[in-house]
């Protein structure tokens, strides 16, 4: 999978590394801004108040 | 490339095994760069997918339990310092002195009307603790929006009785993450448009999720007429669980009226740097 990605990328090795770093930054941003907050609504403890039974 | 393909085109298919051998032997001698390609294997891809999934889960945990609360804490601190400056602009010089303890009307649901400052919870390398308090304890409109929520059935800051608020212990800003680290006498400040209400931490209590007695005007003593002004903080306990509730009580000490002529709008010295946007 990752080896195939490396072969698909154009240019010399340092261009490929640069493209990968940019890709990684985009993916991390998307995760932190959209994906993780959405996942959190399913897994985090939601009840912090005291309420009548 | 041409060297490799041309013989294949000219020779009969039967000779293909011979060409392949020749090609493989020739490769290191000619270019040295061409390594034999590894075929994509199902197991290989599955392995990479699993490793990626594992890394994603670890990253999520790191974000949820650590990074998120730092990012959120920073944003909330910035919002609070902006709000306090706006309140300073609107404020007029106090008339009543510090003996008059103003009590505001309860605001509309989910409206932010106060900020909580607890010097004990300032962390080195992070923005000082300065978090919004909104009306109501709704999950989607207040608590999951990184705010502390005011139980609407309880009193307002400075009012005789009990000002009770709730927030997440971890994740969603983790506004009460360090509630268990309060020391007796630690100051808890509630800032409103009018000024700063100073409470002193008194004790912790652990109750069942149904322990609504902590919200009574005199906690755990229903029907008794209150004479003191209290603050009550509730969150979940233990960490990452909702099995119990941890409750912190504070007793009202004094009120610092907002005074635009003073540095930081007349904020108490203990939180002056925090209010002005710096670190204490």
Care to describe what's here?
The complex is a heterodimer of chains A (53) and B (280). Helix content of chain A is 72%, strand content 0%. Chain A has a domain at 2-33. Chain A has helices spanning 2-8, 13-43. Chain A is rod-shaped and about 65 Å long. With 280 residues, chain B is an alpha+beta fold. Chain B has helices at 2-10, 16-30, 42-90, 272-275, and strands spanning 112-117, 130-135, 148-150, 161-166, 187-191, 195-207, 229-237, 244-257. An eight-stranded mixed barrel of chain B has the order 1-2-3-4-7-8-6-5.
Just give the CATH class of chain B: Mainly Beta
Q: Major β-sheet of chain A, in short?
A: none
What is the number of helices of chain B? 4
Q: Which chain pair shows the most residues in contact?
A: A-B, 22 and 42 residues
What share of the residues of chain B does DSSP label as strand, in percent?
15-25%
Major beta-sheet overview of chain B: 8 strands, mixed, barrel
Calculate Rg of chain A over CA atoms: 20 Å
Structural class of chain B: alpha+beta
Radius of gyration of chain B: 31 Å
Structural class of chain A: mainly alpha
Termini Cα gap of chain B = 68 Å
Shape of chain A: rod-shaped
Low-pLDDT runs of 5+ residues of chain A are none
Number of helices of chain A: 2
The count of domains of chain B is: 1
């Amino acid at each position: 999978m990752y080896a195939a990605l490396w072969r698909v990328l154009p240019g010399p090795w340092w261009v490929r590394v640069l493209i990968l770093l940019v890709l990684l930054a985009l993916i991390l941003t998307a995760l932190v801004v959209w994906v993780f907050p959405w996942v959190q609504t399913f897994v985090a403890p939601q009840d912090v108040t005291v309420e009548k039974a | 490339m041409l060297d490799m393909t041309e013989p294949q085109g000219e020779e009969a298919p039967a000779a293909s095994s011979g060409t392949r051998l020749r090609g493989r032997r020739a490769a290191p001698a000619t270019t040295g760069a061409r390594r034999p390609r590894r075929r994509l294997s199902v197991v290989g891809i599955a392995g990479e997918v699993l490793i990626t999934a594992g890394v994603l889960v670890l990253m999520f945990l790191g974000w949820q339990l650590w990074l998120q609360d730092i990012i959120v804490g920073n944003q909330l601190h910035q919002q609070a310092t902006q709000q306090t400056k706006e309140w300073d602009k609107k404020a007029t010089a106090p008339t009543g002195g510090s003996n008059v303890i103003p009590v505001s009307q309860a605001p509309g649901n989910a409206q932010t009307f106060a900020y909580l400052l607890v010097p004990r919870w300032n962390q080195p390398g992070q923005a000082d603790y300065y978090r919004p308090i909104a009306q109501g304890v709704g999950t989607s409109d207040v608590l999951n929006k990184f705010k502390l929520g005011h139980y609407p059935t309880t009193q307002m800051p400075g009012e005789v009785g009990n000002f009770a608020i709730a927030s997440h212990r971890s994740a969603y800003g983790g506004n009460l993450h360090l509630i268990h680290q309060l020391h007796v006498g630690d100051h808890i400040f509630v800032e409103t448009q009018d000024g700063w209400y100073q409470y002193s931490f008194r004790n912790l209590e652990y109750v069942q999720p149904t322990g609504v007695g902590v919200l009574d005007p005199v906690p755990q003593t229903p029907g008794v007429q209150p004479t003191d002004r209290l603050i009550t903080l509730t969150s979940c306990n233990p960490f990452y669980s909702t099995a119990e509730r941890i409750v912190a009580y504070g007793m009202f000490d004094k009120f610092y009226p907002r005074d635009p002529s003073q540095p930081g709008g007349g904020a108490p010295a203990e939180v002056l740097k925090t209010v002005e946007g710096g670190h204490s």
